[in-house]
């Protein structure tokens, strides 16, 4: 995609199953405080624009009004290149990265790709199947005695960290190299479907747990962060391999 005039235009905040209207409104306000405008709501309450949300979004009702609504997280990240989950720190298959250690990377990728920071339900967070859709996991350092954060406060911590890092040197907000273009969530899903088909074609899952194999392949892929072009090449190789294997099976059945 074309580099955005302002990297903040490429960064989305996604709230998944937000329950409290005040949190939605407060999120709008802190987003506007730090220059972010794209709010996406997954399974939002039908009354998400009611008075409590408007009161907490004071001065930022435009963010609330233009929020994009989705029925699932998969739909919400369909066009996103880099997706980042915030987590409570519970054990996951992929290690959590410190938020401040990732700010340069996030800013650099947002200059070339659509990036989303994803926040889960106030009490239950993100489900495992939702976490599996996302590229990175970050943690916000808090007191060990009381690590739980209100979701709007967590949003504030993230957008402040990004804005503060960018403003340290407005002429060169990130010292890392220019980030490559990444495949969208849809393109990654299509690639993993080819891995899925290959496992069937070579009957690999007879010896191993199918779901675990696919999860480990996905984790390895996300850690490597292949570019959009590299992902397309891998998908092309897998597609042709699967086609030849399918043709070979069809021929042997005749």
Secondary-structure topology with pairs:
Layout: E1 11-16, H1 21-33, E2 38-42, H2 51-56, H3 61-65, E3 68-70, H4 73-76, E4 82-86, E5 97-98, H5 99-110, E6 115-119, H6 128-131, E7 136-139, H7 151-167, H8 185-201, H9 210-224, H10 228-253
Parallel strand pairs: 1-2, 1-6, 2-3, 4-6, 4-7, 5-7
Helix pairs in contact: 1-7, 5-7, 8-9, 8-10
Summarize the entry for a quick read.
The chain is of the alpha/beta class. It has helices at 21-33, 51-56, 61-65, 73-76, 99-110, 128-131, 151-167, 185-201, 210-224, 228-253, and strands at residues 11-16, 38-42, 68-70, 82-86, 97-98, 115-119, 136-139. It has 2 domains: 7-167, SPOUT methyltransferase, trefoil knot domain (Alpha/beta knot, 3-Layer(aba) Sandwich), CATH 3.40.1280; 185-253.
Query: Class of the largest domain, according to the CATH hierarchy?
Result: Alpha Beta
**CATH topology descriptor of the largest domain:** Alpha/beta knot
Uncertain stretches: none
Largest sheet: 7 strands, parallel
Any descriptors?
254 residues; alpha/beta; Alpha/beta knot
Plain-language structure description:
- Helices cover about 45% and strands about 10% of the residues.
- The chain has about 250 residues and is α/β, with parallel strands linked by helices.
- It has two domains: about 5-165, SPOUT methyltransferase, trefoil knot domain (Alpha/beta knot, 3-Layer(aba) Sandwich), CATH 3.40.1280.10; about 185-254.
- α1 (about 20-35) links the parallel β1 (about 10-15) and β2.
- α1 (about 20-35) runs parallel beside α7, α8 (about 185-200) crosses α9 and α8 (about 185-200) runs parallel beside α10.
């Amino acid at each position: 995609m074309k580099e955005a005039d302002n990297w903040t235009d490429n960064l989305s905040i996604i709230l998944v199953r937000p329950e409290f209207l005040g949190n939605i409104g407060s999120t709008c306000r802190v987003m506007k405080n730090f220059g972010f405008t794209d709010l996406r709501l997954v399974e939002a309450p039908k009354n998400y624009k009611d008075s409590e949300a408007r009161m907490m979004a004071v001065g930022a009702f435009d963010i609330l009004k233009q929020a994009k609504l989705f029925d699932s997280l998969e739909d919400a990240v369909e066009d996103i290149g880099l997706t980042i989950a915030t987590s409570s720190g519970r054990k996951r298959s992929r290690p959590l990265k410190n938020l401040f250690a990732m700010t340069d990377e996030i800013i650099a990728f947002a200059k070339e790709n659509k990036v989303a920071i994803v926040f889960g339900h106030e009490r239950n967070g993100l489900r495992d199947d939702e976490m599996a859709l996302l590229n990175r996991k970050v943690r916000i350092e808090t007191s060990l005695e009381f690590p739980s954060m209100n979701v709007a406060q967590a949003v504030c911590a993230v957008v402040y960290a990004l804005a503060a890092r960018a403003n340290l040197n407005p002429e060169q907000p990130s010292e890392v190299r220019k980030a490559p273009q990444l495949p969208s969530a849809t393109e990654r899903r299509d690639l993993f479907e080819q891995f899925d088909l290959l496992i069937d074609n070579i009957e690999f899952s007879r010896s191993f747990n199918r779901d675990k194999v696919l999860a480990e392949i996905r984790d390895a892929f996300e850690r490597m962060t292949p570019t959009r072009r590299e992902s397309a090449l891998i998908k092309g190789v897998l597609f042709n391999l699967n086609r030849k294997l399918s043709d070979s099976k069809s021929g042997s059945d005749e």
